[in-house]
Fold this sequence. Notes:
Elements: H1 6-18, E1 27-31, E2 43-49, E3 67-73, E4 76-82, H2 93-106, E5 110-119, E6 129-137, H3 165-177, E7 183-189, H4 198-206, E8 211-213, H5 217-225, E9 229-239, H6 250-280
Parallel strand pairs: 1-4, 1-5, 5-9, 6-7, 7-8
Antiparallel strand pairs: 2-3, 3-4, 5-8, 6-9
The chain binds hypoxanthine (HPA).
Amino acid sequence: MLSADDFSHAESAAKHLLSHTSIRPRIGLVLGSGLGSFADELSQSVRIPYTTIPHFPRSTAIGHAGQMVLGFVSKVPVVAMQGRVHLYEGYSAQQVAFPVRVFGRMGVRAIIFTNAAGGINFEYKQGALVLISDHINLQGQNPLVGPNDDRFGERFPDMTHAYSKAYRQIARKAAKKLGKDLTEGVYAGLLGPSYETPAEIRYLRAIGADLVGMSTVPEVIAARHMGINVLAISCVTNMAAGILDKPLSSVEVFETTERVRGEFVALLRTVIPEIAGELKD
Ligand code: HPA
């Protein structure tokens, strides 16, 4: 449930982060499993471990460094979360969404989310990057449950355009420049941490999901509540359960993110200045 202190906690965490640097980011990045290395590429960077940020949840997932990195991508000031927290770690949806609220209080107006996901759509190949066009929340939780704090946003935020069409267009153009085609898909967010059964994957396909993962949904809801624009990119680290006749493993997930790292970094490098240009309008 939303704590009455959530706003002041987000405010003090934001102040703490900004007190370390003169960088004033308007773009935030949430880098998922195995995709955190982009934060190492920022210039003039300042690193702040989550453990030192007031009220901040600590990441327990493997493949997550657990620090905030502020720096520049081609002169664009950004703030990146190197590793996120998940519901399956035992955090509440509010705790999972808290960093997004901190971003908002820092002045961030656009967030790029990345995650590792299983591919449900038969057209996908392992290692593909897919733009999330929409989501299905099957986590049974929502970070906005509880009394609404109007300082964050309205009681019933619209989710029709949760994943900005304009940003998806920017990302598709950026990928084209790099010689790649980006497809789009619907992300089903599940609680985890067990992977899905083949029957669950058939069910998810039937209800219109192309991708499945255990993150992103609470954060996107909190971002839209605050009126922050969203771009979200999934890395299809594996075909979802039952598609191939082999068990799923987190080792395969990390191996795949490692393999697409270069492509992923190039895409973000191209997309970020374009989104920054859009924000200035
Ligand atoms: N299912 C859920 N989450 C995931 C998967 C998957 O197949 N791959 C990476 N994250």
